[in-house]
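re: that chain from earlier
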Amino acid sequence: MTGLEKILSQIEKESDDRCQELQDNAEKKAKEIIADAEGQAQELLNERKAQADKKAQTVDRSAQSSKELEKSRILLAARLESIDEVLEKALEVIKALPKREYFDILKELIVKNAGSGEGTLRLSKADSARLPANFVEGVNNALKKGSSVKLGDCADIDSGFVLTYGEVDINCSFDAIAASKREELRDALNSLLFK
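^ sequence. v structure.
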């Protein structure tokens, strides 16, 4: 092995080590953010439940069935409000992530939602302005064979992206994702409370 080959090999190894370190740090940070958000969500849920319980105690004691119905309604409203607040907080956390972590999340979502054939990736104006070099190339390398994306015009969204395949738009803006998760969480909560 020549001296140049040794130097190139060392540079490649250092680059691989640094990439692994950055990936490990990003995963650790993501776990910390999730753990923190879960803790805050539980605190918020406990606080809302305590408030709802306090409100429910003021309901007329003589009408037991009315009291139970009102308590359920108040708890449901508090839980739904908590879900909305937690989702809003999660959106704020995602939008405030460092550029690399933010675009890593976008890349994962694109790979998860990409269809077969070539799609058009439309980002928000803000995300398009700070798009990392070779981002689309990295996405295409991560996609399944027979699937690719090209960068299109900006979408009228706050964050996230829209994937377009012909006449079909797949809205993966973070607001749309949060709205769909909000409905899933509300449906699950309703099924638990009204069996």
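The longest strand covers residues 117-123.
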